[in-house]
What does this fold into?
Amino acid sequence: MNFTTSEENYIKSIYHLQQETGTVNTNSLAAEMQTRPASVTDMLKKLKAKKLLQYERYKGFKLNEAGKKAALDVVRKHRLWEYFLVEKLKFDWDKVHPIAEELEHISSNELIQRLEKFLGNPSFDPHGDPIPDRNGKIPVLNQQCLSDLPLKKTVTVSSVSNQTAQMLEMLKHYKIALGTQLIVQRKFDFDGSLEIKVLKQAACIISEQVAKNVFVHYDQ
Amino acid sequence: MNFTTSEENYIKSIYHLQQETGTVNTNSLAAEMQTRPASVTDMLKKLKAKKLLQYERYKGFKLNEAGKKAALDVVRKHRLWEYFLVEKLKFDWDKVHPIAEELEHISSNELIQRLEKFLGNPSFDPHGDPIPDRNGKIPVLNQQCLSDLPLKKTVTVSSVSNQTAQMLEMLKHYKIALGTQLIVQRKFDFDGSLEIKVLKQAACIISEQVAKNVFVHYDQ
DNA sequence: TTATATTTTTAGATTTGTCTAAATTTTATT
DNA sequence: AATAAAATTTAGACAAATCTAAAAATATAA
It folds into this structure.
């Protein structure tokens, strides 16, 4: 089935919200999409007519299997384009989101398959988010928050939940990027800050606030 | 100024038509765009209001300087994306047009500048058409039709005016592509066919019909 | 130069996606 | 349980881009 840009944006937002909350309600979707509840209701009727979601008046809604697959197609495109923008065009990762928001609506499937191959079939985008495959399968990675980590274990940074320019600046300073290996050497109880050792760098101290936004996985 | 996808498509089509005919009329633009004359009139009013063209009722129309610059921006994007699709994603050149028709409307200027650099600042797209620079300047190449060429001169293929799959198949057979060097050795008056020698290939004969669609330039 | 044909425009309708304001339904509170 | 508050939907409007059918302007031809 083929969708409009607007339909795809709704589907994608519903998908993200229902990942967190199970079912989605009108007001939260309107807030997420920066639109009005009435507009949401209008679109819900269209998406229900296209059999993409379960929806009854006043009762909340959620994507069915067809809807989830449609959402994952858009997410897949978005993340592959983000990977392209950062890895090939050398954009900073905090600049690529709005451009990928446009590129994700280009319709050609062959384009996406060739792009994926050109990029070397990446599994994670530049923010560490998983890229669904063409069947909607999502790669999983056992991630843990840096602030909950035991001491002395070597880990690799796999994603960062705060993706602002401010955070990017901070991480650049510490020479931390996705794929960076590090060890937590010590935790200070006073303020929750951590002494960490980034591979090939001198040990340094990061605040709990930073640590809470960095996710890692154990090596191999 | 920012334009809608529809506006950009009209601007681009007007540009191409006025290259050939000076001024453009409603019916020919409607035919070019596969739409109705009434729809063209509607859009002309919008483009006139945005000061992109000279237009008086019943009198034909043409882009002014602002309109031409807007058109060249779209042409530039289209051709850079075609170059990307063929050179990086390995699409056949006869498959890329409809995809570039979508990509050309992605708005980010920084994207296009970075794409251009990533591609190595190409001057011509995979069909041999010139890629305008960011100021709208178009590279020129003294081209000549293969069928009008004197004998025994070494030339390089620079563009092909018929870009169908059938033509591509034919040229592939003769091992002719953009950049291929060749010499016309003989012309047969009977049917206008040419004996040509492609560099590193045995001499062969091509029909006048093929020759009329191949354009070349003298070496360096 | 008058009649006919062609081209172009207008008038009014349609679709998609959005909005405001009012009405309805559900939820929370006393 | 009655009432107030919050959430949701409906009704009706609007802008963009398109269409059909009819009217108006221009071009062509007898």
Summary: Residues 4, 6, 35-36, 38-39, 42-43, 46, 57-58 of chain B lie near DNA strand D (CB under 10 Å from a C1'). DSSP finds eight helices and eight strands in chain B.
